[in-house]
Amino acid sequence: MPPLMTLIENARVIATAFAITTSLFLAGCGGGGGGENDDQIEPVQLTVVSTPELDGLTAIVGQSTDSATDIAPAVGDFASNIGRDVVGYYSFDLSQIPAGARIVSARLSLFSSRTLNDPEEMMVHIKLDHVNYGNLFPQVLLAGAALDLDFAQIDDVNTTGRKDVDVTAQLQDDLDSGRTTSQYRLRGAVGTDNDNQSDVVVLTDAEDTEGTGELPMLIIEYTE
Ligand SMILES: [Ca+2]
Ligand SMILES: [Ca+2]
Fold first, then answer.
1. What is the pLDDT of residues 144-164, one digit of tens each?
2. Cα 144 to ligand 2 centroid, rounded to whole Å
3. CA separation for the pair 72, 206 (Å, rounded)
4. Minimum-distance ligand to the CA of 50?
5. What CATH number belongs to 44-223?
6. Is the separation of the CB atoms in 188 and 76 below 8 Å?
């Protein structure tokens, strides 16, 4: 083969190789650029523990109601000679979430530390209500503006451990409505069974009065 043709062939091979390499390099850059854009909208992770002075329980005691923020929330009934209905309340401060944030996911994560007798037989399951009681702990059983009643349930009430509930829509609604807290009420699906015995699920509070180290949390992912 004449030298000139050899040079031309070599030049073609080199040019082709260069073109392939360049296109691969550019493709790589293009993919990488897209990835960087995706990275910019990675959700922010935030965990908020319940506000101590706004979580607790409210119960009917005889003809009146009793409320307490310094003992663990509980759901079920107490019984001496009078059946008592018991509901639990939780409140989460939203001040760490910037205005205009979009909630990607939110999970209410509560911890059941113990049960008394047979709460599942008594109340079947726990109903969750999205409520708004502001900065004053409810002094009556079902106080607070009802925003979304019975939006979720906790089954397996006789089993202790973490109980997680999806509250993405409820938290977004709180933010869209300008609320500074996200608040929840837990109650039995069925009231007292009047069997003169306590049937109760005890859930931990922000003060950790149950001593488990397992705090009530709102686990949030949001984008700005
Ligand atoms: Ca409390
Ligand atoms: Ca009972």
1. 889 999 999 999 999 999 999
2. 26
3. 8
4. 1
5. 2.60.120
6. yes
Helices (H), the chain: 3-40, 119-123, 168-176
The ranges assigned to domains in the chain are 1-40, 44-223
The residue behind tokens 């939110």 is: 106
Nearest listed ligand to the Cα of residue 118: 2
Residue holding tokens 């040019």? 15
CA of 129 to the centre of ligand 2 (A): 22
Q: 196 vs 87, 122, 141, 218, CA distance in Å?
A: 18, 12, 20, 35
Considering every ligand atom, which ligand is closest to the CA of 188? 2
Give the DSSP letter of residue 22: H
The SS3 of residue 26 is: helix
d(CA 217, CA 208): 12
Residue 64: pLDDT band (50, 70, 90) is: confident
134: buried, middle or exposed (CB in 10 Å: 19+, 13-18, 0-12)? middle
Question: Is the CB of residue 50 less than 8 Å from the CB of residue 217?
Answer: yes
Question: Which tens digits make up the pLDDT trace of 191-220?
Answer: 888 888 899 999 999 999 999 999 999 999
Collect all residues with Cβ–Cβ distance below 8 Å to 98 and sequence separation of at least 6. Answer: 224
- The β-bridge relationship of strands 145-154 and 83-93 is unpaired
Amino acid in position 212: T
